[in-house]
TrEMBL record:
Domain Major facilitator superfamily (MFS) profile: 1-430
Subcellular location: Membrane
Transmembrane segments: 48-67, 79-101, 107-124, 145-166, 172-192, 242-262, 282-300, 307-327, 333-358, 404-423
Native organism: Acrobeloides nanus
Primary location class: membrane
Protein name, as recorded: Major facilitator superfamily (MFS) profile domain-containing protein
Membrane topology: Multi-pass membrane protein
Amino acid sequence: MSYALYHATRKNLSGVKASILNDWMDNENTTSHRHEKIFDSEKDAKTFLGTLDGIFMILYAVSMFFWGWLGDRTNPRNVVILGMIGSGLTLFLFGTLPYWLLFYSTAYYVFIYILFGIFQGCGWPNEVTIMANWFPKTNRGFIMGLWAACQPLGNIIGAILVSIVLPLGYQYTFAFNSLLIILGAIALFMFIESKPSSAGYNYEELSHDESETPEVLPTTRRRLSSASQPITMLEAILLPNVLAYCLCNACLKLVNYAFFFWLPYYLTSKYGWAESESNQLATWYDIGGIVGSVIGGIISDRLGYRSPVIVVMLIASLGTLSVYNGIGASKVLHVLFMTILGITVSGPYNLIVGTISVDLGSQPALAGNSKAMSTVSGLIDGTGSAGSAIGQFLVPFIQTSFDWQYVFYMFIIMNGLSILCLAKRFYQDCCLLISPTFPSLVPRNIEERERLLHHE
């Protein structure tokens, strides 16, 4: 629920873009002007909204590297709580206070959204660490896939809350979401510990085979104890497969967050549907994200490999994007294809930043180092956020200069590039999957098996 609230607050602006644009253009009441226009044209206002999204993603990406680094050196729960309180305060300062005080300033909006992006970066890398501390490796794909569904769940919660509160005025949607995430921070402080030992459990997870004898275990404990030192960003990015997934996520998150930021506005501007209705329809993309995250995690657990599942889903997304680009105004078709897009775009993204971040942050190359998880997770999601930031500048530019269909062409290209980033890993994992059919590919010993599994 904590990270769902992070996403609900992040969803707020995308759900009220048409309303806030009307307010900035002073289009809400033509007989009694509340204030002077702050933009001369709707194109300028839309460009500024895209700029805000891009600024948010840049600061979110940069700050995530720092917050992940800090979480490995302090209590990650406290970093999460700091981010929740800061997010609530800055959201209120952005969307509610200017409306009440009739204070409209582009410089002010940019400054507050910079702070909002910085505080939002506290959440993901440190919550991944807490989850990894509490749950063992068994069924990790299912557990982390289920938990990573908190992102689309938060989008759904945010969209529903916005659609319910919006008739009172868009300013109240910001106030309500701000209150919710601050209450969530209080609940997190009261009920959650960052690891089992902090909650009084005598629990120690060791990275060893069940076949290890009691004589070997003391050695394993000494090795893990000496290895549990925080790692640098350079050390993290040089770990096996981390760079490939960073680049893949940079392309994929651009597409996922373009839907996140622009889907309700796209439905309203292209089809003329009411903003509250567009927000409700857009939740089907997030419902698909939950389904894709959970099913992808289960299948990858059964299969024993993650990349084949992710690549197949991404390939399916290419055809779905092509079809969705021209389906017309049928709401039934929109529901169907938004759900499929959620499964094939949001689902793989959730697996990468959730399950795979934990896999890579606890791989054998780290020798059981428990203080690397936040750094690796922050690196993967932070790199993705950097790619997404570029996308938020491109979407309004391409849409206003050409048309929405060219925005979808960009999505298809980016998802194609994300597949290419995983091509080598996909090929290696497929070779291991079919190795019983081709005896020459069967590892001859433990050392070769580890080399093949982790591609060092």
